[in-house]
Design a protein that fits this description.
The chain is of the alpha/beta class. The protein contains 10 helices and 16 strands. The two termini are 31 Å apart. The relative contact order is 0.12. InterPro entries: APOBEC/CMP_deaminase_Zn-bd, CMP_dCMP_dom, Cytidine_deaminase-like, DHFR-like_dom_sf, Eubact_RibD, RibDG_C, Riboflavin_Biosynth_HTPR.
Length: 350
């Protein structure tokens, strides 16, 4: 029985440490083994810092062992200059004789070139160990480079009778969230926010809930805020204008005199293929993943365009009887989790 999957599993465990901080770079894990013993480990640093292979090599105390070792890495080592030098060249420099790779990098600047560089140097290269697991782990990076759009997660909460918001009369005139899910579910959402590069909502969500769209109930980096505001109806002291987090507003208003300082604006045509245009702009901004939190019209537009990868729906125990109906969606491989009084439904669009 091959021991390669055991060490690749460890590399995947390490790679998860980069979730939420490495984007738009992939969150890679690397393990260096000599004589069936791990002598070095590493994962990708926050964006702009060293890659997993660099950190793993640097962690090895006795560098003479590298020339007799095997490097396990979840994604093909890069072969081009970016913010850091090519990892493939570093592997060659240290004369690591064996490299085991989870999956090939889909980036046009790599895409087999890293493997080729290693083989040309005489390195023994194996590709495809725990490949499905590695591709699943790198799903954001894969989607971004293979589909030229971010990995899209739709999220909402709905009542037992299928509503995601109550009638206005039930809000008592307050501009704040009307909670359907419990505290534990809301804390989980903040964890999700820390894991994705951007969060997106529509105009009504801002004017009715005045959300901060940041990370408060979890430790981590707040995502880029993306707001859809066709006619720039959001005026006043809303949290999205606090300039604490980068904010991008999609609008059809070209008059820059109406644009607020400290906010990025993108002018698009709201009358045709809006989800596709949003994806194109986010791709241009190097955003590899986005969590879409509402409202109903925004969520439905992405569902109708079949532009989504995951849906995460909280079902609360309460009822509204009247209000804003939640979107309808069909997905594959459903997963159901109990979170105290809530049920979390997760679907994939494979």
């Amino acid at each position: 029985m091959s021991i390669d999957p055991i060490f690749m599993e460890r590399a995947l465990q390490l790679a998860k440490n980069g979730l939420g901080v490495t984007a738009p770079n992939p969150m890679v894990g690397a393990v260096i083994v000599q004589g069936n013993r791990i002598i070095g480990e590493g994962y990708t640093s926050a964006y702009g810092g060293p890659h997993a292979e660099v950190n793993a090599i640097n962690s090895v105390t006795d560098k003479s062992l590298l020339s007799k070792s095997t490097l396990y890495v979840t994604l093909e080592p890069c072969s081009h200059y970016g913010k850091t030098p090519p990892c493939a060249d570093l592997i060659v420099k240290h004369k690591i004789p064996n490299v085991v790779i989870g999956t090939v990098d889909p980036h046009d600047k790599v895409k087999g070139k890293g493997v080729a560089r290693l083989k040309e140097s005489g390195c023994n290269v194996t590709v495809g160990i725990l490949e499905d697991a590695c591709r699943e782990h790198h799903k954001r990076f894969m989607t971004f480079h293979q589909k030229q759009r971010p990995y899209i997660i739709l999220k909402w909460a709905e009542t037992k009778d299928g509503f995601m918001a109550p009638l206005a009369s039930k809000r008592n005139g307050k501009t704040e969230p009307y909670w359907i899910s419990n505290h534990y579910s809301r804390q989980l959402v903040h964890k999700w926010r820390s894991e994705e590069q951007a969060i997106l909502v529509g105009t009504n969500t801002v004017t009715e809930d005045n959300p901060k769209l940041n990370v408060r109930e979890w430790f981590g980096k707040s995502p880029i805020r993306v707001i859809l505001d066709r006619n720039l109806r959001i005026q006043g002291e809303y949290h999205i204008f606090d300039q604490k987090v980068k904010t991008i507003i999609f609008t059809q208003i070209e008059d820059t005199a109406q644009w607020k300082k400290g906010v990025d604006y993108e002018v698009v045509d709201f009358s045709v293929n809006l989800p596709e245009q949003i994806c194109q702009v986010l791709y241009k901004h190097n955003i590899t993943s986005v969590l879409i939190e509402g409202g109903s019209q925004t969520l439905t537009s992405f569902i109708s365009a079949d532009l989504w990868d995951e849906t995460r729906i909280f079902n609360g125990p309460n009822t509204f009887e009247k209000g804003l109906k939640a979107p309808k969606i069909m997905g594959k491989n459903p997963c159901f989790l109990n979170i105290d009084t809530d049920i979390l439904n997760i679907y994939r669009n494979d």
